[in-house]
Write a structure and sequence with these properties.
Blueprint lengths: L1 H18 L2 H4 L9 H7 L2 H9 L17 E5 L5 E4 L3 E2 L7 E2 L7 E6 L6 E6 L5 E6 L9 E4 L4 E5 L1
Antiparallel strand pairs: 1-2, 1-9, 3-4, 4-8, 5-6, 6-7, 7-8
Length: 156
């Protein structure tokens, strides 16, 4: 009987995750805006990525080939997220970093594809940044594969 209850509870949780919009399940963030405010401040491509967890086309971001010294900030709230010191050319067509700045990002499981990935977002406003993979360089072995439309580069 307990096993049947566990299976039905797990199925209900999975169905809820698929049916409810992201905003319904989202936790509270320091910086919040209405949907209308987000749409007014972002282009349609930025909104699709940052608020609907979309992905920009590989090779479309000029930030992928940017190697100037500086800091990458969240487009949604201007939080410093990544240092240019941690950026590298992953050959994927997206800006890639082997680590974020301390207390800059949050993560959660992303189950939209056939396997579970690690989604990363701005810890202050919740804007979707990209995904973290285990195929990066030393010292972390991580690849933070990011959408350039979610970022603003500020040179030193």
């Amino acid at each position: 009987m307990q096993r049947r209850h566990f299976i039905s509870a797990a199925g209900a949780a999975a169905l809820t995750a698929m049916v409810l919009p992201r905003a319904t399940m989202a936790k509270e963030f320091e910086v919040t805006r209405t949907d209308a405010e987000w749409r007014a401040m972002l282009t349609p491509a930025q909104y699709k990525v940052m608020r609907q967890e979309g992905t920009e086309r590989a090779g479309s971001s000029p930030l992928d080939k940017n190697y100037e010294k500086g800091t990458y900030h969240c487009r949604g709230c201007d939080l410093k997220l990544y240092s240019s010191r941690h950026k590298y050319d992953s050959g994927t067509g997206w800006p890639s970093f082997y680590k974020s700045l301390p207390k800059a990002i949050g993560t959660k499981p992303d189950r939209k594809l056939l396997r579970v990935r690690t989604e990363c977002h701005c810890r202050r406003c919740g804007s979707h940044l990209g995904h973290i993979f285990d195929d990066g360089p030393r010292p972390t072995g991580k690849r933070h594969c990011l959408n350039g439309v979610s970022l603003v580069f500020k040179p030193k």
